């Protein structure tokens, strides 16, 4: 059942008033594929715009906090933890891992996915002058804990 639709099929925000406050956590990932020279520039700290990973990390954290402003019908959440990790993945990619936590009445999957997505977009934005052919790939939910639907863990890709 799609909970964002009422009995007449109209979109509405789900009422979570009666749901119990429980611990919830979600982990999402994204990958930015690029030229090896672009990744080397990032890893070596030689990018003229500064520390690409630091800026992307901050962008991802800020995005998680603003998810309800970006995604219609998302509840504004009081996140208690957001962590965005970035690392070189082989010679031509950056792997992004975003983790969001809270004790609340609804899950944080959208916040984790938004954090990973915006961190990837930030890398693209900072590096587009040297590598317009970058691709953002495999944005997906890896794991979700808490809530009525319980534990979800994605298959390894």
TrEMBL record:
Its EC number is 4.6.1.17. SUPFAM superfamilies: Molybdenum cofactor biosynthesis protein C, MoaC (SSF55040). Transmembrane segments: none annotated. It holds the Pfam family MoaC. It is an enzyme of class 4 (lyase). Substrate binds at residues 73-75, 110-111. The active site is at residue 125. InterPro entries: MoaC (IPR023045), MoaC_bact/euk (IPR047594), MoaC_sf (IPR036522), MoCo_biosynth_MoaA/MoaC (IPR050105), Mopterin_CF_biosynth-C_dom (IPR002820). GO terms for molecular function: cyclic pyranopterin monophosphate synthase activity. It catalyses: (8S)-3',8-cyclo-7,8-dihydroguanosine 5'-triphosphate = cyclic pyranopterin phosphate + diphosphate. NCBIfam families: moaC, PRK09364.1. Belongs to the MoaC family. This is Cyclic pyranopterin monophosphate synthase. The gene is moaC.
